[in-house]
């Protein structure tokens, strides 16, 4: 458990902190003991083969005011110069790490395509949270119905098109892993750990391109090493436990 002290940006130390971001020595990713919005960041750090750890806040309800936006994940980057920079917001963290580890393509256009695909997969996961996870109990069935008949099929159809355009080889661009591959795979893992997983995965599993992508990410040697460990398995089980009753967890 780690105490948080990151409620303010350190603009008077921007030069030193920029150097820390440019030449990192170690990383700490702070999030709850589950996958959700911490999953892709951890996957990226595992892929990068760097010195990193995953930590949880000592007392989130008491300390969230010490974060930039009262939210996690947070990424603490300690540079070779000994200074520690803090990044907040999931997308900022994931773009930073993906760029560090060569997962944003080979040119500016490829980077933009990867970011668009990443944004789409993050959006469908957020749409599920709004329609189902954080909906009032009496409205969950209606939210799930709309999500499974409209939102999810549309997302699947569009992503199938882009995967087929690349030859349906388990990647969106070429034959190399990208941030978009990892983010989409984690959206699927998120659906697979929900109480509504049977309804969600019955739809997802009909998409051969998306299942191919999920399997391709999972079979990458660095992902195998990370996801076969007890730490990752604990986060996976934590996802199941949390989303079984998220309101109870947050009370």
Automatic annotation (TrEMBL):
Domain of life of the native organism: Eukaryota
Name this polypeptide is given: GST N-terminal domain-containing protein
Where's the GST N-terminal domain? 25-105
């Amino acid at each position: 458990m780690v105490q948080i002290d990151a409620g303010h940006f350190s603009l008077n130390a921007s030069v030193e902190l920029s150097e820390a971001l440019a030449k990192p020595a170690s990383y700490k990713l702070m999030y709850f003991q589950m996958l959700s919005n911490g999953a892709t960041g951890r996957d990226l750090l595992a892929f990068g083969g760097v010195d990193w750890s995953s930590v949880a806040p000592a007392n989130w309800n008491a300390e969230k005011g010490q974060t930039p936006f009262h939210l996690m994940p947070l990424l603490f980057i300690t540079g070779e110069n000994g200074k520690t920079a803090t990044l907040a917001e999931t997308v900022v963290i994931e773009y930073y790490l993906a760029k560090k580890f060569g997962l944003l393509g080979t040119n500016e256009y490829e980077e933009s395509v990867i970011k668009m695909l990443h944004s789409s997969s993050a959006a469908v996961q957020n749409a599920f949270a709004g329609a189902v996870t954080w909906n009032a109990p009496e409205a969950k069935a209606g939210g799930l119905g709309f999500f499974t008949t409209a939102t999810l099929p549309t997302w699947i159809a569009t992503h199938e098109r882009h995967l087929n355009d690349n030859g349906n080889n388990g990647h969106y661009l070429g034959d190399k892993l990208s941030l978009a591959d990892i983010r989409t795979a984690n959206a699927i893992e998120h659906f697979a750990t929900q109480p509504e997983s049977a309804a969600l995965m019955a739809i997802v599993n009909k998409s051969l391109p998306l299942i191919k992508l999920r399997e391709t990410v999972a079979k990458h040697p660095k992902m195998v090493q990370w996801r076969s460990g007890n730490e990752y398995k604990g986060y996976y089980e934590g996802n199941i436990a949390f989303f079984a009753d998220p309101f109870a967890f947050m009370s």
